[in-house]
Design a protein that fits this description.
CATH architecture: 3-Layer(aba) Sandwich
Strand order of the largest sheet: 1-2-4-3
Oligomer: single chain
CATH superfamily: NADH Oxidase
Order of helices and strands: HHEHHEHEHEH
Number of domains: 1
Distance between the termini: 44 Å
Bound molecules: flavin mononucleotide
Number of helices: 7
Shape: globular
């Protein structure tokens, strides 16, 4: 990992959805969480919590949640993809949907609100969890592990709390399937900077 430049990780950290079933050593999983845990949080609250799911039965249940919400979400575009790129992404989302239960580790990023939360409230402190998620994704890339941030499986928070035995004070914000990639890593493709930034103000 030490020879891997941060820039390489940032510019080559594609969502890797097609993953091998090979086990990921526990020390690598712990490195991912340790990296996530270095991220900043509002008021340094450090209330992001991480569940690394390896149990087959629990993975099945999360995979079922993912299918329940991913199928209707992608159905319209699947019938009529807007571009070859979108078609490729949707094919990968379908692959992930069909294989999620076989992926060696499903990491669920949570936030502990210290009081019961529901509805849109669960996103209030999302900014204190996502920096850790990005640290995790970049570290996975540096370790040669494939990963992708996902949220569809977590739409029914009550169901997820039940599956993972989370307290009602926890919100589950992101599910990151992790494993060795079946395909090749490659550069991300993004809009040019000139299109997405202005100096000083947006309008001239
Ligand atoms: C907030 C957020 C939610 C996402 N939810 C899902 C999801 O539910 N399922 C999925 O397959 N990918 C999900 N993704 C991954 C995005 O589709 C992916 O990051 C984006 O298409 C860019 O992919 P690339 O880095 O390979 O170019 C999510 C990403 C983010 C940041």
């Amino acid at each position: 990992m030490s020879n891997f430049l941060l820039k390489d990780a940032i510019y080559n950290c594609r969502a890797m959805r097609r993953l091998k079933t090979d086990e990921v050593p526990e020390d690598l999983l712990l490195q991912l969480i340790d990296a996530a845990n270095q991220a900043p949080s509002g008021s340094n609250s450090q209330r992001a919590r991480w569940i690394v799911v390896r149990d087959a039965e629990v993975k099945q249940q999360l995979a079922a949640q993912n299918r329940l919400h991913a199928e209707p979400y992608i159905a319209p575009n699947l019938k009529n993809p807007s571009s070859p790129q979108q078609k490729r992404m949707l094919d990968a989302v379908v692959w992930q949907m069909d294989h999620m239960h076989e992926i060696p580790a499903l990491i669920v990023a949570c936030f502990d609100y210290l009081q019961a939360v529901s509805g849109v409230e669960i996103y209030r402190q999302a900014g204190s969890v996502w920096p850790g998620i990005q640290n995790l994704l970049l570290t996975a890339r540096a370790l040669g592990l494939g990963a992708a941030p996902t949220t569809l499986a977590l739409r029914d928070q009550d169901a997820v709390r039940k599956i993972l035995k989370l307290p009602e004070t926890f919100a589950a914000l992101c599910l990151i399937p992790v494993g060795y990639p079946l395909g090749k890593f490659g550069p991300v493709s993004r809009r040019p900077v000139a299109e997405i930034m202005r100096f000083d103000a947006w309008e001239k």
